[in-house]
Amino acid sequence: MAPDLYVTNFNRNFTGVSATAANVVRAQGKMHDLRLVGHPLPDCPAPISKSQARALCRAGPSDRPFAIWHVRRNPEMQTALWLRDVLRRPIRIVFTSAAQRLHSAYPRWLISRMDAVIATTERAAEFVPHVRAVVPHGVDTDRFSPAPDRAAAWAALGYGGTQGIATIGRIRPEKGTDVFVRAMLRLLPDRPGATALVIGRAAREHQSFLSDLQNEVDAAGLRDRILFPGEIAAGDLPPLLRGLSLVMQMPRYEGYGMVPLEGMASGVPFVASDAGYYNAFSAQGRAGRIVDQEDWQGAADAAGTLLDDPARHDAMAKAARDIAEASFSARAEAAGIEEVYQQLWAEG
């Protein structure tokens, strides 16, 4: 029997888009005859190739009028449009849009050809047509969960010190990696037990940006306490987050931003710039603190206030987990997406 749902992942790198897709696929696999198309995602079904998917969707599922292709990137929209409009495959296309700014001309044209669009925030919905629903991204609260003993979980990672603070993502100006480093240069000298991690990789065009940051750290004499471990495997992210005391994300632009949410599910509060969906995650300060973009001093001070008050930290850690489970779970996202699928199938 032909599958009723194809979910695409054409980027071999594990990105924020990959993470959000993986969270949902793990939930959707329990509801649909699903095929992942492209590159693997952690703890998801083994993928099939584009050519295999093209052959498989010649016929629609026996119990549905058509199959759904759920896409999240430009090349994935292109492939699905080719199948639907040129090869006349019995499919409909759903696109998830997180961008909180106007897409450029070609992506706008691609999006205009979608059968349905799911926006991840009300703001993102303002920039795309055919929006059927606003469904915030959710986190897999089974995969990301608190450590029974945070201190032991941190020690097991081997980075040193007694407290871990991390920023996670591509190393580039847009992600505010430099803002994080400057916040750590302010924060760490008065807290000898704290170690900061810059998790991620710099593309070739951002190697000089990375070198400048490393030189700032060296000049401050903090080479052994502000570390640049590089990119880590997706499977290593849950144990890393469980060991942290604080997540700090300081982007200058972010469409949504999953890292604070993954930290929250792991029982880790956050400090972040006013970007993405971070304000909603913070729940008016119960799970995290929001500061102005580029305010490295404010970020350092907010982090220090939290780390220096164990009772407040414990309360925010518990609230973070509770909020992730109640309001931002992958199960809730999958349920919201399912409503859109059912609308399309009902329309025939």
Task: Map the helices and strands.
Layout: E1 5-9, H1 16-28, E2 34-38, H2 50-56, E3 67-71, H3 74-86, E4 91-97, H4 105-112, E5 116-119, H5 122-125, E6 131-134, H6 150-157, E7 163-168, H7 177-187, E8 194-199, H8 207-219, E9 226-230, H9 237-243, E10 246-249, H10 259-265, E11 270-273, H11 278-282, E12 288-291, H12 296-307, H13 310-327, H14 330-347
Parallel strand pairs: 1-2, 1-3, 3-4, 4-5, 5-6, 7-8, 7-10, 8-9, 10-11, 11-12
Helix pairs in contact: 1-14, 6-9, 7-8, 7-12, 10-13
Short key terms for the protein model shown above:
single chain; 348 residues; alpha/beta; Rossmann fold; 2 domains; six-stranded parallel beta sheet; 17% strand
Describe this structure in words.
The chain is of the alpha/beta class and 348 residues long. It folds into 2 domains: 5-138 and 329-347, 3-Layer(aba) Sandwich (Rossmann fold); 150-327, Rossmann fold (3-Layer(aba) Sandwich), CATH 3.40.50. Helices cover 41% and strands 17% of the residues. The protein has helices spanning 16-28, 50-56, 74-86, 105-112, 122-125, 150-157, 177-187, 207-219, 237-243, 259-265, 278-282, 296-307, 310-327, 330-347; strands spanning 5-9, 34-38, 67-71, 91-97, 116-119, 131-134, 163-168, 194-199, 226-230, 246-249, 270-273, 288-291. The chain has a 6-stranded parallel β-sheet, with helices on both faces. Strands 9-8-7-10-11-12 form a 6-stranded parallel β-sheet, sandwiched between helices. It is elongated, with a radius of gyration of 21 Å. The model has no long low-confidence stretch (mean pLDDT 96).
